[in-house]
Fold this protein.
Amino acid sequence: VQLQASGGGLVQAGGSLRLSCAVSGRSFSNFFMGWFRQAPGKEREVVARINRSTVTSYADSVRGRFTIFRDNTKNTVFLQMNSLKPEDTAVYYCAASETPSYTNYRYWGQGTQVTVSS
């Protein structure tokens, strides 16, 4: 299974970015998907999760600003990030699991850098 994350970049505070994660190698619709992030000097944290369909959950720090959604026809999960803040700066990772999990995901993408300037 391979996960390819993309869409990171440099944006000003208040701006938006959309991250994408394309999954290949196994049936995407069977996976529970998640987005995580890790800022310098901090532990990796879960940002958002989605089940095999449309049920989602979010970290308190991003709820109302970020939206996770998936397109099973394109084998891709997305993270729409609005109203970005400098504290959102981190490397963002997508992950896939064949079973429901909070942080114990089996497959990981390579990460994409998001930098939010003040």
Remarks:
- The chain has a mean pLDDT of 96.
- DSSP finds no helices and eleven strands in the chain.
- Residues 35 and 94 are 4 Å apart (CA to CA).
- The longest strand covers residues 17-24.
